[in-house]
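From the shared-data thread, chain only:
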Amino acid sequence: MTWISKMMIVSVVTRLLSCEQTCCQIEYTQLAEGDQIPYLLQKYELKNNNVLTVEKTEYNSYRDKSKLNRYATSYFVFNEGYLENFREEKVNGGRYQMLETSSLWDSGNRLPQVYTYHRNGTVQYKDSLIYDNQDRMIKASSLSGLLDLIYDEDNKLIEKSYSRDGNKEWTTKYVYDGQELEREEFYMHKTGEPVMSLISRFRESETTQYNIKNGEEELSRTITVNDHGDDLKTTGKLRVTRDLSYEYDERGNWVLRVDKSKDGQYYATHREITYKDGTITGEEWTPEKIAEKLNLTYDKAAYDAYRAELKSKRPQS
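Structure, as tokens:
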């Protein structure tokens, strides 16, 4: 099993068991190449398997569009290209919140179990994965539900579905046509009847998404993509218009992503990446520099207090 497959499988039990996600262009790229569980790459958006750690800090201008004033931090640890651990934490209203996920690999380099812990060390989720005789993950189960996956003879994912308490809540089907891909999502009523259907069509530089109403396609959004395969601009109906821009390191991984919403609110995500050879990238993007780039103000004292509180309360290795 490749490092990419492992990294993506970890994410299935931490993000996709609960709901279907809007897909970025990385899904198109990896599905077109036939990789296993490719839609999960969007969780990390890393293009290099020599990564040791990633510390990701999110900033936004919530409530005050002229100022970076809210933060959240995630920390990822890799071992020989495999995701071993990640921690998501924030200080919310003065209260430290943290969830940590660790992976248990078997002797065949497969991931049979993933554990997610509360801050006090108690288990919040225990997720179990089942593989077929070709080492393809075919089921992922947790307390929240069951994910089933089906592949074609070329090992390409053609269907995944999510069920809770025995009732199917959504199904996603994939159809391949050369280098193009179509994905159709069906959301179910508790009776099992579809109540909503969405179609996404992926091409090399663009994704279009449609709502299906009375059997007719209605364009919902269009997503353009840059040369790195990252989403760039989203246009469409209410509250889906976005403009994204990136700064990249020399190895092709982005270290700063800026997302400007339709209403003018900014979301900036900074990543400091450590590689196997000791190289650290992204250090140059300090909070001050990010605020300057966005022409926003920045409360250094508030941010320093946030970082100090995280440092004092996060688990010590």
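The chain has a mean pLDDT of 75.
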